Amino acid sequence: MTTLLEKKIGQLLVIGFDGTTVPRDVKQFIQDYHVGGIILFARNIESPEQVLRLTTDLQRTAKKAGHAQPLLICVDQENGVVRRLEKGTTLLPGAMAIGATQKESYSYDIGLATAKELKALGMNWNLAPVLDVNNNPDNPVIGVRSFGEEADKVASFGREAMKGMQEGGMITTLKHFPGHGDTNVDSHLGLPTIPHSMERLNEVELKPFRACIQEGADTVMTAHIHFPALEKEEGVPATLSKTIVTGLLREELGFDGVVTTDCMEMDAIGKTVGTEKGGLAAVKAGVDIVMISHTLDKQKGALEAIKGAVVNGDLDEALIDQACARVSKLKDTYATWENTSVTDGPIATVVGCEEHERLAEEVYKQSVTVVKNEGALPLKTDQVVVLEPVNQKTMQVEDEKYAHLALGEAVKSVCEGAKTYTLPKTVEELDAIMNDTSTFIVGTLSAGPNSEEVTLIKYLVQKNKTVIVVAMRSPYDLAHLPPGVGAYMATYEFSYPALKIAAKAIFGKEDVKGKAPVTL
Asked: How far apart are CA 61 and CA 46, in angstroms?
């Protein structure tokens, strides 16, 4: 028989699972332990109709089990390169693309549209906006997920995104506190350290969080990063630091909403203190929700670790009660049984609707950026070869399912005669397809100084070819390119609508307005 203590701890867990239907053992966990929240990934999603059936089944399971309040059902729908929805939904611009428009109002509009589509599919919590200030070109995990490199701009665009989503009835998340923008390590793969002084953190990293907390933030997600200026104990990330969660976030910044962890199976936690022990340490630090996205045994293990600590006197049950009260208050605001009931109706009228498609197109026109043009644009020839890099994701947070490229398809929509090839691995292979073509459109994906893309671009320039580079993720690729590149464009993401606008701009059929929100 499940105890009241176990059910209270269950409310503090957000869990994930594999598959497009709810596994039986996960249902049992929700029923027995009153698990409070679910996180969905692309692995759980096939179509709008299917995901609505899934979220409905989850809520019915909770209600039948006697949950006093609905489940929190969350998703990383940042848009751009980090999204969990695709087929049948609107492909909306991500943060850096919005930042490139220089128009805060677009941030609000995209936030509102995102919320409407998520809510129509039975989700009530978006793990966005990203408030990290991306001032490190080598950052492997934030990059284009950020609105830019200026703290004030990230604060204002982040605030508008938050307000837009809230207007659409969506719980929002400020992440990754106290700031993940100036790292060169992905916390999915290791424990980064940010060595800056408290003065610098206040001027840059903390500024967007402070601004949005003052405007009524719902939840804040902690970063698995060590900040020596804030936490003196070596190797303790913000997620597990009472000094940071309770001292800085709650007491100094005055945040009284829900604090959630990032996934506790990320290597920065999972391969150091461990997921289960980390869950307990996070609650001790003052966190309200422990997110464990993948493994049922670890989800149950974390619950047992927290329960054991209460039973043996190592954890004050009052901390559990306080966290439960904050989660309950959040649910009262956004997730009552009355407003959780969703029918098929909104899918047709909201999800992927014309209004949202028009908004996305408008923002992409204002975001795609011509960074450099040495007289190469607009192209006047239809004898063009498009070279696309090998399809790959560079950030662990990206869903491989959606990391497909469509630059060739986009160019062909404007120039039927264009030929598309996967970027060769060697100059010999490139020679074999070069023939008499003089103009090449080359796509890059976070290219490094010695990457195959850069090597081949240099070769094309040496052969006096006209080369137009489209940076389909990181705008920082420009730093690694040779001077002879004829034109350089940044789309900030490989979403097909963005690439189609870029293709039109290349051939003079669209006037794009974007301005890079980072220094190139």
From this structure: 21
- The beta-strand segments (E) located in 191-245 are 219-222
Rounded distance between C-alpha atoms, residue 452 and residue 467, angstroms: 15
pTM: 0.94
Q: Element (H or E) spanning 266, and its range? A: none
Question: CA of 231: how far to CAs of 132, 183, 207, 314, in Å?
Answer: 19, 17, 19, 21
* Encoded tokens for 259: 């604090």
Encoded amino acid at 138, one letter? D
Q: Which string of DSSP letters, residue by residue, matches 64-80?
A: HTT-SSPPEEEE---BT
- Report pLDDT digits (tens) over 202-237: 999 999 999 999 999 999 999 998 899 898 898 899
The residue from 76, 109, 218, 262 that is catalytic is 262
Alpha-carbon torsion angle 215, 334, 124, 82, nearest 10: 10
Q: How far apart are CA 136 and CA 150, in angstroms?
A: 11
401's CB contacts (< 8 A; 6+ apart) are 42, 43, 86
Label residue 124 exposed, middle or buried (CB < 10 Å: 0-12, 13-18, 19+).
Answer: buried
427-481: pLDDT as tens digits: 898 998 887 889 999 999 888 888 888 999 999 999 999 999 999 999 999 999 9
262 tagged catalytic? yes
Alpha-carbon span 506 to 414, nearest angstrom: 9
Burial class (CB in 10 A: 0-12, 13-18, 19+), 300: middle
CB atoms within 10 A of CB 500: 22
Going edge to edge, which strands form the sheet with 258-260?
Answer: 173-177, 219-222, 258-260
**Which residue among 188, 224, 226, 294 is the active-site one?**
188
Cα 315 to Cα 224, 307, 323, 510: the distances in Å are: 22, 9, 13, 61
CB 132 within 8 A of CB 176: yes
Do strands 487-490 and 439-444 pair parallel, antiparallel, or not at all (unpaired)? unpaired
Q: Is residue 467 helix, strand or coil?
A: strand
- The domains found in the chain, sorted by start residue, are 8-350 (3.20.20.300), 369-506 (3.40.50.1700)
Which H, E and C letters describe 375-428, residue by residue? CCCCCCCCCEEEEECCCCCCCCCCCHHHCCCCHHHHHHCCCCCCEEEECCCCHH
| Cα 213 off chain centre by | 20
Known catalytic residue at 436 = no
H or E stretch covering 355: helix 354-367
Long-range contacts of 200-205 (CB under 8 A, 24+ apart): 201/227, 201/229, 201/230, 203/151, 204/133, 204/135, 204/151, 204/179, 205/132, 205/133, 205/151, 205/178, 205/179, 205/181
